[in-house]
């Protein structure tokens, strides 16, 4: 694709080699003389985004301009997240053209100013090709580029940062400050605390040192304060400690002890109304923790031998411990609260291109970026589904040639960005300019594998993923070597040349040893092999422009921008998707990848239609008409009846890892029934398989997470037991003068209250009174008004389960621990109230489908695997007394119902995660979006909101 020509060197920041050439840029998608904007149909749309829980408008901008093939979700997210300028002002961006031009023109100018292009014509081709790829959702830069590039504010292009801290109070205080400034800007950072001496060592004054765990408290409080001070998302941070640090056991136990504290206080019925002291004492909640293990430790675990914890000052062992017991403690902690994760130090540094400049000791919060301390990485991700094509005979192929050309284009642009980028600290800026770390990656792997008829957990799926990853990284380093010939190597290359070339050889050898499986992956492997041969040849001659080239990031918001079905390296969430409609409303659809997969597997058109219809009704492929059981695995997803096994996720990571400069952002989800031994096995296999980092999450291991429920037939729950009656004016059924009632005292987040719930003598709840604060106060008045509104609704026939489904999981302060052993954690007062009412007045089947169980039922589930009591324990008469009464519902407009949704299930769903919950009768362990109230879904080791594009992490 690339040629070089003589020309002046302009502005290269590198000191490594002489630069006297410019790149010749080849066209990939564009036509000479035709601008990419002129080849698409543009249309105007109105973007109005609401919080569906309270109906408030979160964002509104009308008349924005986008191509007609962009989805509603992509348009909404780009308009609300990335358009710059005050809404309603003349300076506000109103077209995708303005956004892309703002970014692309900045990159082009910097490329011209710094001697990247051989001629103005090459600069124009670069401009057009970059514009085309962004316009057609072929790739996307990470969010900071869209936020900052081309604006008057600092042009920060990186989302991932690694800091450092030394064993001095000055350095520790610098850490607090630098971390705070990064959080303030909405990004995240990671660091290793192992240089700080342990609590078992002495200070120069003679007293004992505080140890890193104590300093984590201050940093955690700082992160929590910045988070609650109005930032758009939680502070994202990673804290790492080496396994040979004398305080490693205390580090492992930090979050476990906090979880135990919460449980103990609640289970003991402790009165939390003590001014909030006990709530604020819950610490270490604002960071992901990881233990950095080395091969010596893992071999000691394997052999059952001892392992030495070493002084930070002298490096000498100060304590011998049982390695297997410490490894067990890590697994037990992860089982209890999902922390700590694990990072494999020797593996990480075995693939380190710049070891002469320092070891890799830490990662960014999502664990995909790993390089030198005080550095950053800017990311970009390619949409893999854009490269899946059918040939003339109707056979699928992955367009490896075009993929490689786009990778070259994107890597060139990413390297150019370092020439003009700003950084949060001077030290980070110096390191990044000196080593020019890049993080190209991809999204939509899960969709690609399914569309090509590959099971995610299969040899064929792993072979295709490995081939694509190898081609991506090999092409990136090839372009890096070509850039080195044009504008010079990175500053640290001369010192690290031997190590860098060694790592390139390791990648090439891994590519050669990889197993080829079928007609799809074999041509991609061939292209990757050719790319790695070029890497070794060109690198030997010219060196490399970048110390790092590739990672696999979560691709949260930018994945939605590109209309990707799956994020990063993740499999598909489920077979049925939630889709917003252009005219307003929503519907559920079967994934577009399903028909492609069925055709790839050889099914005829009528068979495909029948299977898709079955999936639309049931949400899975089990017993689908005509579908061979051997093909079920192709349609396995992250959630549902046939979810991918935890080790299947680990094996996929291992297939991609040898072909990445950095690592992979991914959490291995495990069922609630998973054992400590299974977590030990995953952590151990991660080391054996050559991963760089690994984290697990066991469902419902967090106290505050919703409990999973067994699958229930939703239609049976929703169907009333009496005939529907058309009644345009519902009749109120008042309670008698004397009625039974229950009065409950409660505390939520330190706020005390009382609830009186009165019921009909034989027919369920009919009245609720809430008492909080002093009579005459605003809060007391609002509680009285709320009580009246709920009570009148109940008496007019609104089912209690409707209130429960709407008000549980609603988040606002006060929130946190309660003194109710059945409801241990509440996200707000109303969340607690309706969980308590559900437990008191709804039958087991109804509230179980909503994920609400008593402490006794949860204990029974742990012991027997079932929430339900044995037949001889069921109080049938009691259930009948507390059953909700069913009143005929007013008839609603059919047209209104249809415009809102294409199905009964989708009416109550507001994202794909919520749709899966409805179809499968379970609750996903995911938080609600802080902006729009939609349940988020996992993206790598972070969470992503499909509704508005918000993320819980750093990318």
From TrEMBL:
Occurrences of domain TSCPD (ranges): 739-839
Cofactor: adenosylcob(III)alamin
Boundaries of every Ribonucleotide reductase large subunit C-terminal domain copy: 158-697
Presence of the UniProt keyword Oxidoreductase in the record: yes
Gene Ontology MF term list: ribonucleoside-diphosphate reductase activity, thioredoxin disulfide as acceptor
NCBIfam families linked to this entry: NrdJ_Z, PRK06556.1
InterPro entries: RdRp_reductase_class-2 (IPR050862), RNR_2_N (IPR013678), RNR_lg_C (IPR000788), RNR_NrdJ/NrdZ (IPR013344), TSCPD_dom (IPR024434)
Family annotation (SUPFAM superfamilies): PFL-like glycyl radical enzymes
Catalytic activity reported: a 2'-deoxyribonucleoside 5'-diphosphate + [thioredoxin]-disulfide + H2O = a ribonucleoside 5'-diphosphate + [thioredoxin]-dithiol
UniProt keyword annotation of rRNA processing present: no
Region ranges (Disordered): 1-24, 882-912
Family, similarity comment: Belongs to the ribonucleoside diphosphate reductase class-2 family.
Biological role stated in the UniProt entry: Catalyzes the reduction of ribonucleotides to deoxyribonucleotides. May function to provide a pool of deoxyribonucleotide precursors for DNA repair during oxygen limitation and/or for immediate growth after restoration of oxygen.
Protein name, UniProt field: Vitamin B12-dependent ribonucleotide reductase
Keywords, comma-separated and alphabetical: Cobalamin, Cobalt, Disulfide bond, DNA synthesis, Nucleotide-binding, Oxidoreductase
Regions of compositional bias (Low complexity) in chain numbering: 892-904
EC number: 1.17.4.1
Ribonucleotide reductase class II vitamin B12-dependent N-terminal domain residues: 47-137
């Amino acid at each position: 694709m690339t040629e070089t020509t003589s020309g002046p060197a302009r502005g290269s920041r590198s000191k490594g080699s002489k630069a006297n050439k410019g790149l010749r840029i080849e066209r990939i998608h564009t036509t000479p003389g035709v601008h990419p904007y002129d080849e698409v149909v543009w249309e105007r749309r109105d973007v109005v985004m609401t919080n569906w829980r309270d109906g408030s408008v979160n964002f509104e901008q009308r008349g924005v301009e986008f191509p007609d093939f962009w989805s509603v979700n992509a348009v909404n997210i780009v308009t609300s997240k990335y358009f710059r300028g005050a809404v309603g002002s003349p300076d506000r961006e109103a077209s995708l053209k303005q956004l892309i031009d703002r970014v692309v023109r900045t990159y082009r100018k910097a490329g011209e100013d710094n001697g990247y292009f051989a001629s103005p014509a090459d600069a124009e081709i670069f401009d057009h090709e970059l514009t085309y790829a962004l316009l057609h959702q072929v790739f996307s830069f990470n969010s900071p580029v869209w936020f900052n590039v081309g604006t008057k504010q600092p042009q920060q292009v990186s989302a991932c940062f690694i800091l450092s801290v030394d064993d001095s109070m000055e350095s520790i205080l610098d850490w607090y400050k630098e971390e705070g400034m990064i959080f303030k800007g909405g990004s995240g950072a990671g660091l290793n605390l192992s240089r700080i001496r342990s609590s078992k060592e002495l200070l120069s004054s003679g007293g004992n040192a505080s140890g890193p765990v104590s300093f984590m408290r201050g940093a955690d409080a700082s992160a929590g304060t910045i988070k609650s001070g109005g930032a758009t998302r939680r502070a994202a941070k990673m804290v790492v400690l080496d396994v040979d640090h004398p305080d490693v056991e205390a580090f492992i136990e930090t979050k476990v002890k906090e979880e135990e504290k919460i449980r103990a206080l609640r289970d003991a019925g402790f009165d939390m109304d003590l001014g909030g002291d006990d709530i604020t004492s819950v610490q270490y909640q604002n960071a992901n923790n990881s233990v950095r293990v080395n091969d010596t430790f893992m071999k000691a675990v394997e052999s059952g031998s001892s392992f030495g914890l070493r002084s930070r000052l002298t490096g000498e062992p100060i304590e011998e411990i049982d390695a297997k017991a410490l490894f067990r403690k890590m697994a037990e902690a992860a089982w209890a609260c999902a922390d700590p994760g694990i990072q494999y130090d020797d593996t990480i540094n075995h693939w380190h291109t710049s070891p002469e400049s320092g070891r890799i000791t830490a990662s960014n919060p999502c664990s995909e970026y790993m390089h030198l301390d005080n550095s950053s990485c800017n990311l970009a991700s390619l949409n893999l589904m854009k490269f899946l094509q059918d040939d003339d005979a109707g056979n699928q192929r992955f367009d490896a040639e075009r993929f490689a050309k786009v990778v070259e284009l994107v890597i060139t642009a990413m390297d150019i960005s370092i020439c003009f980028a700003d950084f949060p600290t001077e030290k980070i800026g110096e390191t990044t300019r000196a080593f020019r770390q890049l993080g190209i990656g991809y999204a939509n792997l899960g969709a690609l594998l399914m569309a090509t008829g590959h099971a995610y957990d299969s040899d064929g799926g792993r072979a295709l993923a490995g081939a694509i990853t190898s081609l991506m990284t090999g092409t990136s380093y090839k372009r890096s070597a070509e850039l080195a010939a044009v504008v010079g190597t990175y500053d640290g290359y001369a010192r690290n040349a031997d190590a860098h070339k060694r790592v390139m050889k390791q990648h090439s050898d891994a590519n050669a040893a990889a197993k080829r499986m079928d007609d799809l992956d074999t041509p991609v492997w061939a292209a990757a092999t050719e790319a790695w041969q070029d890497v070794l040849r060109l690198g030997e001659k010219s060196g490399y422009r970048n110390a790092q080239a590739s990672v696999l990031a979560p691709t949260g918001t930018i994945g939605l921008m590109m209309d990707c079905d799956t994020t990063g390296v993740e499999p598909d969430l489920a077979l049925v998707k939630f889709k917003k409609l252009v005219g307003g409303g929503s519907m559920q659809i079967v994934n577009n990848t399903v028909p492609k997969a069925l055709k790839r597997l050889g099914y005829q058109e009528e068979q495909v239609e029948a299977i898709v219809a079955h999936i639309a009704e049931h949400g899975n492929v089990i017993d689908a008409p005509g579908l061979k059981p051997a093909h079920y695995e192709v349609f396995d997803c992250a959630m549902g009846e046939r979810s991918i096994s935890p080790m299947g996720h680990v094996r996929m990571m291992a297939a991609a890892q040898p072909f990445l400069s950095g690592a992979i952002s991914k959490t291995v989800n495990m069922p609630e029934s998973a054992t400590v031994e299974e977590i030990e096995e995953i952590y151990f296999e991660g080391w054996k398989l050559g991963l760089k980092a690994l984290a697990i999450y066991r469902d419902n291991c967090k106290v505050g997470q919703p409990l999973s429920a067994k699958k229930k037939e939703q239609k049976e729950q929703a169907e009333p037991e009496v005939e529907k009656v058309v009644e345009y004016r519902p009749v109120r059924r008042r309670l008698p003068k004397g009625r039974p009632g229950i009065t409950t005292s409660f505390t939520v987040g330190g706020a005390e209250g009382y609830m009186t719930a009165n019921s009909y003598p034989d027919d369920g709840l009919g009245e609720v009174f809430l008492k909080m604060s002093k009579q005459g106060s605003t809060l007391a008045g609002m509680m009285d008004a709320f009580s009246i509104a709920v009570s009148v609704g109940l008496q007019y026939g609104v089912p209690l389960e409707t209130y429960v489904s709407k008000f549980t999981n609603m988040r606002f302060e006060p929130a946190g621990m309660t003194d109710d052993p059945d409801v241990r954690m509440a996200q707000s007062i109303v969340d607690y109230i309706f969980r308590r009412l559900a437990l008191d007045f709804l039958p087991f089947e109804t509230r179980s489908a909503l994920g609400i169980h008593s402490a006794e039922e949860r204990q029974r589930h742990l012991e027997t695997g079932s929430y339900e009591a044995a037949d001889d324990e069921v109080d049938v008469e009691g259930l009948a007394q507390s059953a909700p009464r069913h009143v005929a519902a007013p008839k609603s407009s059919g047209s209104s119902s249809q415009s809102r949704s294409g199905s009964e299930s989708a009416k109550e769903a507001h994202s794909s995660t919520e749709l899966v919950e409805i179809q499968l009768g379970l609750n996903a362990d995911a938080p609600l979006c802080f902006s729009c109230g939609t349940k988020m879904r996992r993206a790598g080791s972070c969470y992503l909101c499909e509704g508005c594009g918000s993320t819980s992490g750093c990318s």
